[in-house]
Amino acid sequence: MISIGMGQAVSLVLGLVVGSFLNVVIYRLPRGESVVWPGSRCTDCGTPLRPMDLVPVLSFLLLRGRCRYCGARISWRYPLVESVTGVLFLLAYTRLGFGSQLVFAWVLAGVVVAIAAIDLEHRRIPNVIVLPAAAVGLLSALATRSVHIHEALLGMAVGTLALGLLSIVSRGGMGMGDAKLLGMVGAWAGWRGMLLTLFGASVVASAIGLALIACRVIGRRQPIPFGPFLSICGYAVYIYGDRMLELWLG
Known about the structure:
- With about 250 residues, the protein is mostly helical.
- It contains 8 helices and no strands.
- The N and C termini lie far apart (about 40 Å).
């Protein structure tokens, strides 16, 4: 039997490795490039990277954030994505233990990290990620019974329609990508989890937005992407949803 300590270590390391691959997805997918071929290479000089250059987080630290071959700076996004994915994998294991729902939680972790990072950098949420992820969410409902399938279908429909209508009314203030993303969250967490995600994401986004304005990092009329808040809150609801709903509903 795998001890708890070993399980946590495996989850963390696996998350770091998955996060390394997600960096490839985050960089290449918005540019229309294959995420499989060619292999990892420096985005400045194009030199193929060797295994010693691809150790999650550690390679970045040992190289002091610079390419081994041309000296170009490496974005902090790389170790950040790897670290966040590792922590999300670890949290899922700690909450769920080994089982079918853990596998789905790890899939969702990869999805939300990729969506959040792409939305932050490119202000878009790719259909090629969010639509298949919604289908996997429905499969999760059937396989794990974390929510009833009719609740998942209702959450997906209501979430998409609600923010979709808001996108039309606001004339671009809210994107259709956000509507699809909230619908995806509904497929994973059901209609109640979807509403909790929307509420939590709105509160956190408002607080961070006000803090950035107060610190003069952004202007009052400068929008911030909503996708990262929906993504991370949706993930939290998926793995902690029962406890969060108990607190929310009193």
